[in-house]
Fold:
Amino acid sequence: MISELAVLPHLEQILEDLPQSVRIPTVWPEFFEQTGPMMTTHDDRRLTHRYYFRVWAVAEIDGEQFAAPTKDISCGGISFLHHEQIAPLEPIKVSLPCGICASAQVTRSMQIEDDCYDIGARWVNEEDRLVITQYIAEFLDTGSAS
Structure:
């Protein structure tokens, strides 16, 4: 059960040690304060609902870790910010403060500002997807994300 997952004991230390190279866009002054379900648009093709999920995560590509502020999460994937573009189809691992570590594949990389790209990735492992779905149901639907 998700509520029994321990916070990764070393994640906070890893985040402190990693450079935070990405700059939060100036047009998003209250970036980390947004919570709850995201509004959909008339042309939204997503199959699952997204939730604001503003935390610092540890992402890893080819063994290189970096601190990544997340934007949103869904049962289908995650969006985070990075200081440089990441190629679509790139495999990535994402470790979240709640104890979830999941495998994903980059689907998009869109420049927001200098040194800031919005990276979208989809979950590739069904087991990870189920754990994340349970996490969303238990915590994000109630507004108590960690």
The longest helix spans residues 126-140. The mean pLDDT is 82. The CA atoms of residues 52 and 72 lie 4 Å apart.
